[in-house]
Predict the structure of cAMP-dependent protein kinase, putative.
Amino acid sequence: MEPAPYSVRYRILCDLLDSHTALAYDNAFIVDGESGICLAEDEKAAVLDTVLLRNWNGETSCLDSVTFNILERNRLKHDDFDVIGCLGDGQFGVVEAVRFKMSGQVFAMKTIEKTVAKRAGRLSLSLERHVHRLSNSSSLSPCPNLVAAFQTELSLHLITTYAECGSLWNRMCALFSDTKYAGRMLEGEIQWWGAQMVSAIGWLHNHNIVHRDIKPHNFLIKSDHHLQITDFGSAAPLYFTFPDETPCVPWQFCVQPVGTPDYLAPEVLILAEQAVIESKQVHQTSGSHILQHSEKKGYSASIDWWSLGSTLYEMATGKPPFFAETIHETYEKLITFRSDDLSFPTYLSSELVLLLKGLINVPVKRLSTATMIQKSPFFQPIGWIDNFPKFFYSPLVLPDMLGNEQLQTNFQQSIQEDEFTLNHFFDYSDISSVHLTPVSPSSSAPPVWSQWVGWSFHPDPKSLEVISAADNSSGNDAFMTPIRNKLTTCPFTPDIMNRPPAPLLPSTHSTKKQVFQELLHCVQMSAKKHMMRGKVKTKSFTKDTSCISLLSDPGMVLIETGVSHQQLQERHDVLCGQLHHLDRQLFKLHKLLKS
């Protein structure tokens, strides 16, 4: 029997859920600042998830079997989508291009197993869902919209709008294959992408969110040559310790390194080192005062601007500013960075060099807001409206540009032909904290399954209706640019615009995991090295201690007192052996990454 149209199913589902609102547990996925958004939809989601989870966990059903079957039959499920191809297969989830059967529209669907989410415990599921949902409420949002979310007994699924032209990294890779450019991007094109990147990052910061993994891979290209920022698995909230201070990431989000080595700001690594050192002290010191997380400051949102600077540098020169043969070498370059360390090729314009110097700098000298960056001479020709570059933004809903057979053929060809394969949407090459601790309406402890209540999001039928090509056509306006204060065409027409993004090869996710493990190992080894130096200065942490003071003196770290010279020498010998082993492992990793 043919399923009922989604609009009919949606009405039946809403009527059923509206009549059972008293059944719901509290929404476990509400984050700060979201409590007033789409309250009715949140209530429906909580009811739906509560009923489903109770049934799946063998609890007494709060609905009779007939009513439950009606609910199950009409909710959005995996069976409503056809999988076209795999876009990414990361450590904790898979992202696929899917087609909604009832309309033919193409979306991106991310799937994560619940067992993995519980075991990893560090995925910012709530914040990630929140960012995509924020996009729904803004016509100028620079990230993919949240289309739908649903769950099964074993997995969570997130449906977002699909960026059909791959990532900025794809574009950069195309330049490497062209001998004319040798991997370098023209400055006119850097302006085009850079203005949009500044706007996207600034939009996140205005919503008190820091991305923490800014890199070319995490900017998606739409068919109108506009960028969307994605991959919020590393994201963290920003909080004001005091009203007149710069908002910072809470300390507990800073205790492990996040992001990608070539683009990391030094303070991310330095605070991770400091957390390792303090962790050792907790075990070695009795009765000492240890500051609570709430008393400490993390790094600020300016870490995203450092990463943007590293990205722009790579776009202009063909390689990141701190590129090295091993992760360990890159790490050392970052934690010992000084403002005058960076060199620039002579072919770069003075305006671009000035911008890069302002971004790739110590925190106290860094360009740290979107407004400051927009005033840079490099972006002087750009006209800004509401912090966005002045050009036409086409609707975020993707038209059905390719037939199903043709799209599947393109995915097959991409798997066979593309050397560069990337996860364009959700990378999770880092560690982020997530707190899924729902509050039960009962005075007793909430059931374990209640941590998944509130995940579901059922869209209005209009979001899933067929959209004609005429409705989505934006004519030449979609290719307009703000460069030079007049509208001109986009500065290039890359071949990647004619096909979908390349999917990941199956082995890529394990390589990324190894890279992160090596980075974490570097942090731990570096922290131990600092602790074992006999002449290292000690410093007691106070409420005013921040990563800025650490960066002003990288040698200023905490060590335990009362340790003999012989003990330090023994530890030094052990550490040398560990570092030798690490160097061998890094060499193997480098060979693996190049293969």
Remarks:
- Residues 267 and 547 are 6 Å apart (CA to CA).
- The first helix runs from residue 6 to 18.
